[in-house]
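Researcher: Please predict.
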Amino acid sequence: MTKLQGSCHCGAVRFEVEEPEWVMDCNCSRCRLYGGLWAYYPENEVEFAGAPDTFTYVWGDRMLEFHTCRTCGCATHSTNVDKSDNYPMAVNARLLRGISPKRTRLVQKNNGNDMVFWTHTESPVLPSHDEPPPAK
C-alpha cells in the first residue's frame, strides 16, 4: 500500500496514513457542513507530525469527538469518546494528497435520513444507525 500525507489547510495538523481502500460519505448534518469524507484506521496506524492542535466537538449520541484545527477550522479527524481499542479513528480523506477517486471505493451512509448526497456511487447506500433493519 501507498502512504499518503494529509494536512489541514494551514498545515498545523499533519498526518500520514496508508491509502484507504474505501471512504465513507456520511450525510449527517455535521459531516455535510464540514465536508467530511472519512477513511478509517486503527488509532495506532495514523501517524501525526506532533500533537494535533485541535479543539473537539461532541454532539448527538455523544460517542464521537470531532477534531477541528484551531487555526484554519478544517475538520481533520474523529475519535471515539470512550477510547476503546476496537473503535477506529476516522481521518478526513479530503485532506489527503494523492488519493484517487478511481482507486478508492466510495461508501455512502444515510445518517442524515434524507438520502441527499453530493457524491455519486453505484454501491447501495448504508442505512443510518437510527433506521430499523430492513424487513426480511
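Model: The CA atoms of residues 24 and 107 lie 5 Å apart.
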